[in-house]
Design brief:
heterodimer, A: 123 residues, alpha/beta, Rossmann fold, 5-stranded parallel sheet, 5 strands, 19% strand, globular, B: 440 residues, alpha+beta, 6-stranded antiparallel sheet, 5-stranded antiparallel sheet, rod-shaped, disordered C terminus
């Protein structure tokens, strides 16, 4: 069973994404900040198969978290989630990183679930 | 927000105004020094010229008088005393009694003048004055017909004491409401025996009025003899200056310089200095008339450089006006800049708040649309239904609160507060109003 880490500071968002992923048969872990996510990585027996990371987090951003995971844990399967795609700076960064991303509000049936299935099958 | 910038903006405005004031103030004080010193130098030159002129006039008057008396002595040498009295009995006061030379007379060894009384007081045309006019003049100048002192034995004694002496000038002598001084030449017989003296008596007040005061309008001036008697003081300043001069020992020093100048063949000595007087600090300039009299001009420091001061005040007024206009322009500009900055800050804050709103609404929509989609595909919910319902409720309330906040902002009756950073971006919330407010 694939394990997916959800990193977002909004409990309702974490709950909704978790419901959807668990309904599709995925195992779900969550963290509210980048620092919590790093702690989870250190304590976990196995790395997740993918991480859904909100770009705007209190403290370190989702981009910084992705960089730390890449450097410290050799983990590259980060899928960004953002409510700030309309913002030029965020959009430019997302495009430059060539990482997958979803814009809030999420379209679970049309975008998120089909993409995750393809993505996890590939990885 | 912009309130914190106001003190800095006004401080900058004050600094700029102060910096602009510095060159104006420096310029004012520099020009003040220039104008005052230049005006004082010019004034001092004029005053020196005037004093030198008076010194020359005094000198000339004295020697003219002495020449007159010497001439008289030569003429009188061939007369015996009885004939002299007969021939010189008639003399005149000319013109009209207003001359500083009160009379010329022969003084016998008894010290009495001959003749003792004027024959007539005449007018400018040489005619005797009408009796009523003469009576009027005599009320003002009771000495007019008989100006002589009770005795001139001091003249005779001076020539008897020094047989070589060729002339004599007395100090100032008070007599009937006036001060006079006497110039004399000795009258000696062929064998050198002293027979008497020829005197010319002058009125120092009239001398000052005729010779000095016409060129001394508005000037504080005094004349003092070698004994410290003040012959003329034009005002209170002059009087206090003369007293201070005599009391300070300045008189003795000036007379010493005068004697030294006479030895060098000069008309007299010159000097000056600063005096501390009841009317303030004053500048004194004096000239000695050989070693007999001192004529001095005194001026307060306030009066010095008065010519340049008017121009200076005008410059000061213009500089002050320029500074006020500059400050007013700076204040208007600063106010405008603060308003512009305030508007820019408000706009930037509002833009950021709009981002915060968008973030919050999108998160709420994740929850709601996620639920809606889940209902559409009829996915089983599992057991934590109450927790999920709480999430939906919170998401709906978030949207409602956001809409309410937007309405408050639109009405302009609320204030945005900084609510921390998310990455490099600032987040804002509304200032709480009762149970209203928000979080990012």
């Amino acid at each position: 069973m694939s394990l997916i880490l959800v990193v977002d500071d909004e409990p309702g968002v974490v709950q909704t994404i978790g419901d959807w992923l668990r309904g599709e048969g995925y195992e779900v872990a969550s963290a509210a900040t980048a620092e919590e996510a790093i702690t989870w990585f250190r304590r976990s027996d196995r790395p997740p198969d993918a991480a859904l990371v909100d770009v705007k987090l209190p403290g370190a951003t989702g981009f910084e978290l992705a960089d730390w995971l890449s450097q410290d844990f050799d983990f590259h399967e980060v899928i960004f989630v953002t409510a700030f795609f309309w913002e030029e700076e965020t959009r430019r960064e997302l495009v430059a990183r060539r990482s997958p991303y979803f814009e809030k509000p999420l379209k679970f049936t049309r975008e998120v679930i089909p993409f995750l299935k393809r993505y996890l099958a590939k990885t | 927000m912009s309130e914190a910038r106001h003190p800095r903006a006004w401080a900058f405005f004050a600094l700029v105004t102060l910096l602009a004031a510095i060159p104006l103030a420096v310029g004012y004080f520099w020009l003040r020094g220039e104008v005052l010193s230049d005006a004082q130098r010019q004034h001092q030159r004029q005053m020196n010229n005037q004093l030198n002129l008076w010194q020359e006039q005094f000198y000339d008057a004295k020697w003219d008088s002495l020449a007159d008396t010497s001439d008289d002595v030569l003429h009188l040498g061939s007369y015996d005393e009885a004939q002299l009295m007969a021939d010189t009995l008639v003399w005149y006061v000319y013109p009209d009694g207003h001359a500083f030379i009160e009379g010329t007379a022969v003084v016998g060894l008894d010290g009495q003048p001959r003749p003792g009384k004027a024959a007539a007081v005449i007018d400018d045309a040489g005619e005797p004055l009408p009796p009523e006019h003469l009576a009027q003049l005599l009320r003002i100048h009771p000495w007019l017909e008989n100006p002589w002192l009770p005795s001139y034995s001091f003249v005779i004694e001076a020539f008897q004491k020094d047989p070589e002496r060729e002339f004599f000038i007395s100090r100032l002598i008070p007599d009937r409401d006036r001060l006079v001084y006497v110039m004399a030449s000795p009258w000696r017989g062929a064998e050198g025996r002293l027979k008497g003296a020829v005197i010319q008596q002058q009125n120092i007040g009239q001398f000052a009025e005729d010779i000095v005061l016409p060129g001394a309008k508005g000037i504080s001036l005094w004349i003092m003899d070698a004994g410290g008697t003040v012959g003329l003081a034009t005002d209170d300043l002059a009087r206090s200056s003369a007293q201070a001069f005599a009391a300070s020992g300045g008189l003795a020093r000036a007379l010493k310089k005068g004697r030294a100048a006479v030895d060098l063949g000069k008309a007299g000595a010159a000097g000056g200095g600063v005096q501390e007087l009841p009317l303030g600090q004053a500048q004194l300039n004096w000239r000695t008339m050989e070693d007999g009299f001192i004529l001095a001009v005194v001026e307060t420091q306030a009066a010095l450089g008065a010519v340049g001061r008017g121009t200076l005040h005008k410059f000061g007024a213009i500089a002050l006006l320029s500074l006020i206009i500059l400050a007013a322009a700076g204040a208007v500009y600063t106010l405008g800049a603060l308003r512009r900055e305030g508007r820019m800050m408000e706009k930037a804050t509002l833009l950021r708040y709009a981002g915060t709103v968008s973030h919050r609404v999108r998160n709420a929509l994740v929850v709601l649309s996620g639920a809606v989609e889940m209902l559409q595909v009829k996915v089983a919910w599992g057991k934590n239904d109450q927790e999920r319902l709480d999430n939906y409720d919170r998401a709906v309330k978030d949207i409602e609160r956001t809409v309410s906040e937007l309405e408050h902002i639109s009405r302009g009756d609320t204030e945005l507060l900084y609510d921390g950073q998310v990455g490099e971006k600032s987040m804002y919330r509304l200032k709480p109003r009762g149970d209203e407010g928000g979080r990012s």
